[in-house]
Amino acid sequence: MTTNPALAACAVATIGPWTFDEYIEECRKFHSYPAPGLILGGIMVQAARRRLPEGVLFDAVAETSSCLPDAVQLLTPCTAGNGWLRVVDLGRYAVSLYNKYNGEGVRVSLNAEALDAWPEIKGWFFKLKTKKEQDSDRLREEMRLAGESILSVAEVQLKPAHVGKTSKGPIAVCPLCGEGYPRRHGAICRGCQGEAPADLLGRDDAQIPDAPRLTAVPAEEAVGKTALHDMTRIDPGESKGAEFTHGQTLTAGDVCRLQAMGRMRVYLLENNEPGEEWVHEDDAARAFAHGLSADDAIVAKGEPREGKITLLAARDGLLSVNEEALERFNLVPGVMAATRHNCSVVKAGQPVAATRAIPLYLARRDFTKACALLDTEPPLRLLPIKPARAGLLITGTEVFTGLIEDKFAPILTKKIEALGGSVVKTLFAPDDAGLIRDGVKSLLDAGADLIITTAGLSVDPDDVTRKGLVEAGAEDLLYGMSVTPGAMSLLGRVGHARLLGVPACALFFPTTAVDLLLPRILAGMPITRADLARSGHGGLCQECPTCSFPHCPFGK
Q1: Are residues 97 and 106 in contact, defined by beta-carbon separation less than 8 angstroms?
Q2: Which of 514, 509, 478 lies closest to 388 in space, CA to CA?
Q3: Helix, strand and coil percent figures for the chain, each rounded to 5
Q4: Of 32, 348, 387, 514, which sees the most CB atoms within 10 A?
Q5: What CA–CA distance (Å, rounded) separates 501 from 452?
Q6: Are the C-beta atoms of residues 477 and 449 closer than 8 Å to each other?
Q7: Is the CA virtual torsion 148, 152, 158, 161 positive or negative?
């Protein structure tokens, strides 16, 4: 093939201790096939290794699980087994080699923009051709000639999580499968938490029936005996509740009521002993109610009724729901927990969740698994809402000069006071970054632990609020969220105070992003860019003629 001499100057002669052709043969031995990704990976690993200081002990991170990790293992001491190679599968063709003690290193990635000069590589990388359509010999030759010219190289500092070797810590025996695992993974191993890649065939626990064999007797024979479970009476449109409860002694007068409820036969405690491998619904509900919350701010509302326990807020606060932990719990067969929406503001005594075992008797294996998941990561917390000492900075030349009357201060004061806070100082500033900066500093000096700025956050040339905040030392700024009204909201920190920038829409709409963000800020809940992105689901206000927030879908 004809090649530009300038490009050919980058041609690869050797990879590691081998010639280019020998390396291809080593790929065949190690990988069973000289995959293009492994050939390119060898060039990348070599490029990174050449740029490390001589004699440095290094680890590696591959950002794809395809081929590239094998190049690392072929050409360096780093392997998955010895823990010096980590795979963080982001789907990006990139590898970093770095000092294993301080995390300083080199990252090499494929430069997609440089592939136009190499059509066979481009066709392979972007999957423009099927494997059958690829010219393997030409593809390898292009890789040899292109060499490092198609790579991007940058110095990097690895994050602490990837620096140093992490010990497994103490080893425990999983009570469900009987296998050893790192105790830090929780009360049961991750395989029994639902992450196992395979189901074991022929295990005894696979033969456990869905329910124990229980014996029922005619209602008239139940006199003087004990009810095995709550029995519900429903009067359509009027009432629903337990007419008979677990442990209740049945009398002759109860027979007619049972039959009127359609209970011609009943389960009794006396002639039903399912054994240790089963857990009664009431015992399961008590255990789940105890485990769902990490502290005593969420409490059970008495004993189980009809197999269910309701959980109440013991004080005012913001309900935090770990949705992934809740989902893992609810994936266990035969159990359930239902909660209010995450980030709901609740008052003491209000219900926040309910839980139960779905069958009358739950298999002990499933009970143990569910309890272990709760012990590892309780899904519910009730965060206290700290009363804010808020400082308001109302911006806008038209307000500052008195051309129009300010309406922001009373709106924001009402929202702050509704959450138990107070306004320590209110200032006005024109559209001037320097004066906005000075206003922020004045509010900090007044003892404000929450600074709220208004307006000046859009795209107009006079909107300089963000510039003034940066000059005042604002950090960790997050501008914009997937909610309307309130898309131009701003979050951050300045000095010792949290920062909230309120767009002008709050003057018109009774409910905006402010009503979603303010409780979370006062509860000390971290808010990330990912949180703001996820807020788009449910973030569209319906702008109802009569606002019913929070009893509506907005922000949920």
Answers
A1: yes
A2: 514
A3: 30, 25, 45
A4: 514
A5: 6
A6: no
A7: negative
202 domain residue, yes or no: no
| Whole-number pLDDT of residue 206 | 47
Please, how many CA atoms are within 13 Å of residue 231, restricted to the half-sphere of its CB?
24
Token pair recorded at residue 208? 């456990």
Q: Of 273, 267, 307, 313, give the one whose Cα is nearest residue 287.
A: 307
Query: Which H/E stretch holds residue 14?
Result: strand 14-15
Query: CA quadruple 135, 137, 138, 139: dihedral positive or negative?
Result: positive
**What would the two tokens of residue 7 be?**
């490009």
Report how far residue 346's alpha carbon sits from residue 388's, in angstroms, rounded to the nearest whole number: 17
User: For 230-265, b where at least 16 C-beta lie within 10 A, e where not — what string?
Assistant: bbebeeeeeeeebbbebebebeeebbebbeeeebee
Residues 41 and 158 in one domain: yes
510 and 426 assigned to the same domain:
yes
> Is 199 domain-assigned?
no
Taking alpha carbons only, the member of 202, 97, 221, 241 closest to residue 155 is 97
Phi and psi at residue 283, to the nearest 5°: -65, -40
Are 378 and 460 contained in the same domain?
no
Assess whether 330 and 436 both reside in one domain: no
Pairing type for strands 361-363 and 278-280 reads antiparallel
Q: How many CA atoms lie within 13 A of 174 on its CB side?
A: 20
Three-state secondary-structure class, residue 223: coil
> Would residue 314 count as lying in a domain?
yes
Return the pLDDT at 354: 98
Question: How far apart are the C-alpha atoms of 219 and 50, rounded to whole Å?
Answer: 85
Do residues 508 and 403 both lie within one domain? Answer: yes
Report, as ranges of residue numbers, the positions in the chain whose pLDDT lies below 70.
1-9, 202-210, 456, 458-462
Residues 526 and 420 in one domain: yes
Structure confidence at residue 9 (pLDDT): 56
Q: What pLDDT, on the 0 to 100 scale, is given for residue 3?
A: 44
**Using CA atoms, how far apart are residues 185 and 172, in angstroms rounded to an integer?**
10
Task: Provide CB contacts within 8 A for 62, sequence distance 6+.
Answer: 68, 69, 72, 85, 86, 87, 88, 94, 95
Per-residue confidence (pLDDT) for residue 460, from 0 to 100: 64
Residue with tokens 């499933």: 366
Query: Amino acid identity, residue 158?
Result: L
What three-state secondary structure class fits 354?
strand
Q: Which two tokens stand for residue 473?
A: 């030392």
Domain co-membership, 143 together with 65: yes
Q: Over the Cα atoms of the chain, what is R_g? A: 32
pLDDT value of residue 556: 87
Specify if 207 maps to a domain: no
Say how far apart CA 149 and CA 111 lie, in whole Å.
9
Q: Which amino acid is at 440?
A: V
Question: What would the two tokens of residue 458 be?
Answer: 């859009």
Q: Which residues pair with 241 in a beta bridge?
A: 233
Helix residue spans in 209-330 (DSSP H): 254-260, 281-291, 323-330
Domains held by the chain: number: 4
Q: Give CA–CA dist 318/290, Å, rounded.
A: 19
Return the H-helix or E-strand segment holding 278.
strand 278-280
Q: How many CA atoms lie within 13 A of 54 on its CB side?
A: 0
Structural domain span for residue 261:
216-267
What is the per-residue pLDDT across 363-375, written as a single tens digit (0 to 9) for each?
998 999 899 889 9
